[in-house]
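Cross-posting from the modeling subforum.

Setting up a comparison between two proteins and wanted a second pair of eyes on the formatting. Protein 1 (sequence, then structure tokens):
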Amino acid sequence: VQSMLSSAAGIKALILDDETATIISLVFGQSELRQHEVFLTQKIDHATRDKAPMMKAFYFIRPTTRNFEYLCKEVADPRYGEYYLYFTNTVRRTALEELAEADVNDVVTKVQESYADLYAQGKTLFSLDIPSCVPLQLSNGGRWAPAQQEVYDRVIDGLHSAMMSMQYRPLIRYQASSGLTQRIGEDLMHRMAQSADLFNKRFSPATLVIIDRREDPVTPLLFPWTYTAMMHELFGVSKTEVQRDPKKPPEVFSPIYDEFYRDNMATNMGDLCLKIQDLAKRYQQEKLARPGSHRPPSNASSSAAVSTASSPDAA
């Protein structure tokens, strides 16, 4: 994303679709966008047609048929002076030809495939934000309904994008007893063969293991009791958002904005309680150091409450 936004200087408008808006929000904050001169962020299906020829439009979208329809209409009657198009996955040749025909004003400056068709949950974890793959198991002679086929295609797109973004040339292993994992492995290998020129020798060798969760339903229930695990178990974390109170808006729970969470994501419960206690003590010391602050009595109940709530036994 940084490379994309740094490719041209000047005032920028960032145009996203529903998925890429979330993908961007997981790794970039508004302040960081401002540092790259992004002063307008909009969805690709936004109805506003106000022209801003002094701005450069940066499109970061998935290469779907619907997005290309919006894009062709846009470049045929451009609102912005220049267009920089970045797609999160491989683009069909026919779609590029249609786009070239629509660009009668020669406003498209750059077209690039930037493989980021996934949701980064941290430095070592990503997801495809698919609620469930169980419907894919209910195949009717190998055929799926359109909604199920869309889920399957999203799996292939996401895995292909992940290999490209991490620059891995994987050896694919799948579970022999599962027809679905076999189909995913074979289709992914076919997809990689179509992009053989991209999977060059500079890519590192790796092994991609595809497993059917029905074979082992117990493992997801066994996990270390870390800060991240507790938040998922007690509240549920969805796209870095935590809904603690149904009557209030969700809270952002991201290592980008929360320094304490970033430093203690994998900290176990016992050590976490001690760090919370130290954090509370530092906060009290900083508060007392401010002008006009008054030191509370030594046996203040608030300090006892913090100490008790932060102890492993109380937790």
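Protein 2 (same layout):
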Amino acid sequence: ECDRVIHLNKLKRTHVRNAVRMGERGGLVIERHETCCRAKLSTVLVVVDRRTLKNVIEFRRATTSAVCRFCSNPLGDDGGVATFVASGVHGCCTNEECVDLAKNLCTKTLPCGHPCNGVRDEATCLPCLRGCSKDTLFMDSEDLCPICFTTSLAEEPCVLLDCRHVFHFRCIRRLLTMRWSGPRITFGYCRCPTCSRSLVDLKHPILAPLVEPVRILYEEVRKKALLRLSYDGLEGQAGATEAERAEFAIDKYAYYPCFKCKHASFGGLRACQDARGDDFNPADLVCPMCVEGPAMQECPRHGADFLEYKCRFCCSVAVFFCFGTTHFCNPCHDDHQRCVSAKKESLPHCPAGPRLTQLEGDECPLHVKHPPTGEEFALGCGICRNAQTF
């Protein structure tokens, strides 16, 4: 009576309270797993994610009739026989989503006698999620998928990663398909959501078609970032091992997918991209190999990755490449907001000094013929121009 009248909101004081039975074993069961903590009663399950503290409270209906293994609704008068004939999976109702899940679920029975909860046609079945594989798995059937955190692992076909963490196949597939957000190529999405282990070298045969394009892209970005790090003379700041240097370089530089050829193209420092945000037009991100006009060049020895450019806003050699589209010298980079917002007709003509300064005379400080100020122009390969310094 105290809880119903004194502590509840006025709108809820007339609600009926039902006592939760403690179950035949007569107690609350507390379980602590690597990914979550659980409190279980016979009709209530509370799951809390240990990392994010998200929680789900599930009230289970007490029933003696057969229920769907995916949605827990009653199977109906035929006990799911019609769906079994269509999908080969026992205990599935006629709901369209449940039938789709059943068609992708493994139909094998494990040596322990429990049905496999893996993906259909896998060469090696998923270990048992019902407590028979405690020595080899960190999770079981009542754990929620750490990606969606809405349904338990038992409610959908699952996959086991190399790190021994289990996820819904549909969730991990969506994670690998959506890739990164924003213009800059990142690989945070290709890590285990639980332990952050990289999935680039994942050997799972079902996920191989999704992981292989990611691995190819990662190797391309890794190779180019390491070359850029060496070109900038920053290897001494990046760590002793190649893996440490690669991680440092990928984090320091920004690479974008070229809108035309889809290859990774150098886009400057990551800090510039962070300052600009994610407001961008994908069509503007074009690599030097695909750009049209005077900016298009390629070194026969080193390709287009180490071209040096004229500053877009003056007659100086650019030292910054920002937003994946614009080259700046140091002074123009410091005053980039004014430079970028200036109208093209108001820009100084050659010879042009930094910070939109009009210089006197007719001779260009770069001693080259180039397009009008405000357009991109490549001066040539930086490695070849500075060959004596390498």
